[in-house]
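**User:** My hope is that you can spare some time for a protein that puzzles me. I have put the entry right below:
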Amino acid sequence: MTWQAVGIYVIIEPPNHGLGLWMLGAFVLTFLGTRLITRMIRSGRGPFRDVEVGGTHLHHQVYGILGMLVAGAIEFAYRPGSPGAQILAVLFGSGAALALDEFALWLHLEDVYWSKEGRKSVDAVFLAVGVGLLLVAGFNPFADSGASSADHAAFAALLALNLLLSVGAILKGKTAMGVIGLLIPLLSAVAFVRLAKPTSPWARWRYQPGSRKAERAQHRYPLARRTRMDAVKDWIAGASSH
């Protein structure tokens, strides 16, 4: 099925209820289980404790990265059929959840798991789940339905334009809409034309201090701005250490 909106094609293939669903299910369950276990470790309840090797704390992202590497290597080398493919999908999804749960550590290169900065890990997980749902549903921006050379050229041009719009949206501080916009082009276009967040690279480069756009951005996105989604993320992440 193909949708066309404002000259941009959105290709929707038959829903992927196979490996994608196994991977996404493993991702969500592993993330929820990881957050539960880390909370128990923090409060001193249950049998779980931090793992140390030679006095060095071994973060759970290590297991996640190893899981993804093993799953990817086996998939590329052997291309197993069922049930091996499902097992690899579960291994990759679980590994991705363990790795992204400590995304803030990648970003800051320090253990900020329970701090305010650590909320970025939850943002990354939410974004990954959103993209995963779209992939399972069958959204595919790379499926070229054109038959002629002109159609192929137009399709490639639309892909390039959408990529630029998505990058622009991310630079404006609309990371989620920019990434999801890679699958749903209209979203990236909407995000790109809207006002940039005041802390974004775009605002720093394009909005002069004291200008009308800078003031509008500060008014629309105040630092103390809180949404219902922020409350949900805080509840999942747990109490901040500062």
About this structure: Residues 17-137 form one domain. Confidence is low (pLDDT under 50) at residues 1-9. Strands lie at 2-5, 8-11, 52-53, 56-57. The two ends are 49 Å apart (CA to CA).
